[in-house]
Amino acid sequence: MNDGVPPPVPLPDRPTRLTAPEADAVFRHILSDQTRPVFALVYAMTGDWHASQDITQETFIKLHGQLHKTEVDGRILAWTRRVAANAALNLIRARKAQPGPMDPLGADAEAECGVDPAVRQFCRDLLEHIAKLPSHKREIVEMRIWDRMSYGEISQEVGCSVDCAKKVFERFRKTLKRIES
């Protein structure tokens, strides 16, 4: 009994150009599986419910176009999160550049929405540090943090040794600890 939920669609291991029906099936799967995590990421960064909804929608519109015109592999999930995070960072930067309060609802709105400002700031800082990494290191860090992949899975995905994946992630953690102190 599938309860109306489509079965999972496996993402290709190697870059593959998808046919239109395949791309649509992959899109529906990613949309149903990743909407909440992408929204949560953006909301943690921005603290703005409506902007987070808009950014999430725009991210999936970009994903839909990407699936139909380029080769796709398992890294499309990391790409999707990166697009959402970059859009959130762009919104944060734009708000900082504008004069006046960032939150039109006032200071009490942050307390009412239930998101701890320290958690939101940590997420912003984390994403900014990840964004500064070279692409090959950023990919390893994102897979470890967001996809919760093991070092073995990461090494297979990016084509490096398990030790290399461990070292990249551990160096990133040490950098974060130095920055926090």
Walk me through what this model shows.
- With 181 residues, this protein is mainly alpha-helical.
- The protein folds into 2 domains: 10-114, Rna Polymerase Sigma Factor, Chain: A, CATH 1.10.1740.10; 133-181, Arc Repressor Mutant, subunit A (Orthogonal Bundle).
- It has 8 helices and 2 strands.
- The chain has helices at residues 20-46, 49-69, 76-97, 108-113, 117-132, 135-145, 151-158, 162-180, and strands spanning 16-17, 71-72.
- A two-stranded antiparallel sheet has the order 1-2.
- Helix 6 runs antiparallel to helix 7.
- The relative contact order is 0.10.
Number of individual domains: 2
- What's the arrangement of strands in the largest beta sheet? 1-2
Which stretches are low in confidence, meaning pLDDT under 50 for 5 or more residues running? 100-112
Helix content: over 70%
Name the CATH class of the largest domain. Mainly Alpha
Q: How many beta-strand elements?
A: 2
Amount of beta strand: under 5%
Shape: flat
CATH topology of the largest domain: Rna Polymerase Sigma Factor, Chain: A
H-E order: EHHEHHHHHH
CATH superfamily of the largest domain: RNA polymerase sigma factor, region 2, helix turn helix motif
> What CATH architecture of the largest domain do you see?
Orthogonal Bundle
Mean pLDDT: 79
Q: What's the layout of helices and strands?
A:
Layout: E1 16-17, H1 20-46, H2 49-69, E2 71-72, H3 76-97, H4 108-113, H5 117-132, H6 135-145, H7 151-158, H8 162-180
Antiparallel strand pairs: 1-2
Helix pairs in contact: 1-2, 1-3, 1-5, 2-3, 3-5, 6-7, 6-8, 7-8
